[in-house]
Write a structure and sequence with these properties.
- With 352 residues, the chain is an alpha/beta fold.
- The chain folds into two domains: 256 residues, 3-Layer(aba) Sandwich (Rossmann fold), CATH 3.40.50; 70 residues, no CATH class.
- Helices cover 47% and strands 9% of the residues.
- It is built from 14 helices and seven strands.
- A five-stranded parallel sheet has the order 2-3-1-4-5, sandwiched between helices.
- Helix 4 packs parallel to helix 7, helix 7 runs parallel beside helix 14 and helix 11 crosses helix 12.
- The longest helix has 22 residues.
- The chain is globular and about 65 Å long.
- The termini are far apart.
- About 4% of the residues have low confidence.
């Protein structure tokens, strides 16, 4: 059965809006729905291959994503149509939060939204879009913790938030400009390609405070049978101690422009390049080699889970009232217009 005969739904994100929770506890349980989530190079299906290639473009081009040469949509459309013939399920659900942005918008300034949505339209012409948004202040706060985990970023939160700041000179520098967290723009972009009736937008806060109706919104949109979720969404995020340790550790690492890996700063890298055979240099080479392979994230996450069991875990509040107001006031006009247009009642969830 081709993509023109299948019912296709694409969950495009945002990141940090319960995507992993939904995939594991809701999407995977839906009847007569084939779920695609993996973004791995070695996955055999063309849908995962497509997502992997898009992810590589986002990593490589960053804020210059508009200059990227996107893959041929006709190639993937043909390959995916052929692949669909082997799938018995009537509904296809593709879930990947990076369709909207790379590194939560900290790498590409949300510039990938237009070219990616255009690409998706050309591959899946009749798809319907599920988009989950989150209050901009808590979205940015959560994304900061994620950036500490997944990159070599070592700055504090205040330097991560740059209101009305654009930087096209260094696409590798990570920061978020709240003025670009414009959900109305996200909605209008996908409306242009897929049509207003084919877009569902739900606030993440509804999943947290009104899970039953959040789920009902999606199953009605997809016209599938509902399933019950028996636990609330939970993502610990880094504790205050883990954030401090992560920033210290990240200072010893540097993002490589040409590789999707992290390398140590040049002053330390010189010890790896030297041909000296002294015991001191050999020892440093061994230590640095181990550090390069060491992933601190896994240990910090285990530490935070241990702290929670002891009742000692606490997530830091990074937002001062002044900064929170600046972020939300920057987005208030577009939030209001989107809320009024779609009857989302965003003020109910604390949106300005």
């Amino acid at each position: 059965m081709s993509s023109d005969l299948k019912k296709i739904y694409i969950h495009v994100g945002l990141p940090k809006t319960g995507s992993t929770f939904l995939r594991n506890n809701f999407f995977a349980e839906l009847n007569n729905v084939a779920l695609f989530t993996a973004v791995k190079k070695n996955d055999s299906n063309p849908i995962s291959g497509m997502m992997f290639e898009l992810g590589q473009l986002q990593m490589k081009y960053g804020r210059k994503i508009e200059e990227a040469e996107f893959p041929d949509p006709e190639y993937y459309k043909k390959k995916i149509n052929q692949y669909f013939q082997s799938i018995a399920d009537e509904n296809i659900l593709i879930s990947w939060s990076s369709f909207l942005c790379s590194m939560g918008g900290a790498r590409d300034d949300f510039k990938s939204i237009i070219p990616v949505s255009n690409f998706l339209k050309r591959v899946f012409s009749e798809a319907r879009i599920i988009m989950i948004i989150r209050r901009q202040d808590t979205y940015i706060e959560s994304n900061y913790s994620q950036v500490l985990k997944k990159s070599s970023y070592a700055g504090d939160f205040d330097s991560f938030v740059r209101i009305n700041c654009l930087n096209d000179n260094d696409q590798r520098e990570l920061f978020i400009n709240p003025s670009l967290c414009n959900y109305l723009h996200f909605y209008n972009t996908y409306c242009t390609h897929f049509g207003r009736n084919n877009i569902l937008i739900i606030p993440f806060e509804k999943l947290v405070y009104d899970q039953k109706n959040f789920i009902e919104d999606i199953v009605q949109f997809m016209q599938v049978k509902s399933v019950a979720i028996d636990k609330p969404p939970e993502n610990l995020g880094y504790s205050g101690q883990s954030m401090k340790l992560s920033r210290i550790y990240n200072k010893f690492r540097k993002y490589s422009k040409h590789k999707a890996e992290r390398i140590l700063d040049k002053p330390i890298q010189k010890y790896l390049d030297t041909k000296s055979t002294t015991i001191k240099v050999k020892f440093i080479q061994i230590v640095i080699g181990k550090l390069k392979q060491f992933q601190i994230r896994a240990y910090l996450e285990k530490w935070d889970k241990f702290l929670k069991k002891l009742g000692l875990y606490s997530k830091p509040s990074l937002l001062t009232k002044t900064l929170r107001d600046k972020i939300m006031n920057t987005c208030s006009a577009s939030n209001k217009e989107l809320s009024d247009k779609l009857h989302l009642q965003l003020t109910k969830y604390g949106y300005y």
